[in-house]
Specification:
This protein is an alpha/beta fold and 345 residues long. It has eleven helices and 13 strands. The strands form four sheets. It has a seven-stranded parallel beta sheet with strand order 3-2-1-4-5-6-11, sandwiched between helices. It has a two-stranded parallel ribbon with strand order 7-10. The chain has a two-stranded parallel sheet with strand order 8-13. 48% of the residues are buried. It binds nicotinamide-adenine-dinucleotide and uridine-diphosphate-N-acetylglucosamine.
Length: 345
């Protein structure tokens, strides 16, 4: 019987791609999600891609009793990949308590359940390169200092890593891997799964695709006076399916007891930085669509440039991002086109 892995937030953008990769690798996935930032139709799309319908439980993870009952009813779960969280940086500045309650409350409840049910003693956690702020040295490796977070959202990632570290130290059975994502973009190669931003997107790529399809007038590029070759910010964009695959590898590492410490931390990026202008050019090239864009002032809180040192993940996890920027853009575009043709109804 294949091993069962719980995917919290598995109806969301990165979670749904990870469920696909888990099922492709022979695992059974059970999704727990309250659909606060996702749609029930995602389940059907995962099924269309993999031929297997994952089990889905609609539950809010801040409901500790409900979560306990869930674990009680699923004694065969061997590990947990924890995506469920709110992720909008600007909203977190306006509603910090909502972010601390949801992101930290869910994690604490989850860890309490995992302590109670030690069969499920391996955790993969979604962290972010936001913990590095603007690093002094680039590419940034995992030893770089974690700097005070600019937003409550970023702070929830830092505090979560600390909560996991403390809990692993106090519990001999529990192991965890925190994955610090750089900028996940793109969509499944089938065009059937992708990012579903609610309202006006904050992130670059959904803004680009929505502009190209005509939902938005014009992309605004925030700042052209940065200390970078073309004056725009630099990021390490990584294809969501490469990112998803890393979660399967991380879980396998713990299941096989290959982990070297109770709590390990890895960067997940490609190791290459691209400017906003290069990202726009890549989109225009790979989608074959001309984009309406213009410059504006800098966006407060943006770091100038960041890209990952991926050596530790490449060597220790035996994982490497494979897909390039053009493929990230062309898959994001196929997804937008499919959405526009009514894929999600
Ligand atoms: P997403 O919003 O698409 O997915 C998150 C899912 O969690 C949603 O389906 C939502 O309904 C669910 N959820 C939220 N709170 C919940 C709760 N209390 N109980 C049950 N379900 C709940 O986000 P995503 O882009 O897939 O991100 C997944 C994780 O990765 C998040 O923790 C996010 O902070 C982290 N992350 C994302 C990025 C990024 O650029 N997308 C970058 C770094 C880290
Ligand atoms: C942002 C968050 C980060 C979070 C990540 C994923 C901030 C400061 N950081 O990262 O904490 O983990 O999203 O949710 O919000 N850009 C434009 N025009 C746009 C949108 C973006 O020029 O309309 C630029 C930005 O200035 C940036 C780059 O595109 O240089 C990427 O932006 P974005 O996709 O929002 O990601 P980050 O800012 O890197």
């Amino acid at each position: 019987m294949s091993k069962k892995i719980l995917v919290t937030g598995g109806m969301g953008y990165i979670g749904s791609h990870t469920v696909v990769e888990l099922q492709k690798s022979g695992y059974r996935a059970v999704i727990l999600d309250n659909l606060s930032n996702s749609q029930p139709g995602i389940l059907e799309l995962i099924t269309r891609i993999t031929g297997v319908k994952p089990e889905f439980v609609n539950l809010d993870m801040t409901n500790q009793q409900g979560l306990n009952a869930f674990f009680h009813n699923h004694p065969d779960i061997k590990g947990v990949i924890h995506f469920a969280a709110y992720k909008a940086v600007g909203e977190s500045v306006e509603k910090p308590l909502m972010y601390y309650h949801n992101n930290l409350g869910s994690l604490v409840n989850l860890l309490a359940c995992m302590q109670e049910h030690p069969a499920a003693s391996h955790l993969v956690f979604s962290s972010s390169c936001t913990v590095y702020g603007q690093p002094e040295n680039l590419p940034v490796d995992e030893q770089a200092p974690v700097v005070p977070a600019i937003s409550p959202y970023g702070n929830t990632k830092q505090i979560s890593e600390e909560i996991i570290e403390d809990t692993c130290r106090s519990n001999a059975l529990l192991t965890a891997i925190s994955l610090r994502y750089f900028n996940p973009i793109g969509a499944h190669e089938s065009g059937l799964l992708g990012e579903l931003p609610l309202g006006v997107p904050n992130n670059l790529v959904p803004y680009i695709t929505q502009t190209a399809i005509g939902k938005r007038n014009k992309l605004t590029i925030f700042g052209n006076d940065y200390n970078t070759p073309d004056g725009t910010c630099i990021r390490d964009y990584i294809h969501v399916s490469d990112l998803a695959r890393a979660h399967v590898v991380a879980m396998e590492r713990m299941l096989k007891k290959d982990n070297k410490k109770a709590h390990e931390v890895f960067n997940l990026g490609t190791g290459t930085g691209y400017s906003v202008l290069e990202a726009v050019q890549s989109f225009e090239r790979s989608a074959g669509v001309k984009l309406n864009w213009g410059f504006s002032a800098r966006r407060p809180g943006d770091v100038e440039k960041v890209w990952a040192d991926t050596q530790f993940a490449n060597e220790e996890l035996g994982w490497k991002a494979e897909k390039g920027l053009d493929e990230m853009m062309s898959t994001a575009w196929s997804w937008e086109v499919n959405l526009n043709e009514g894929l999600m109804g």
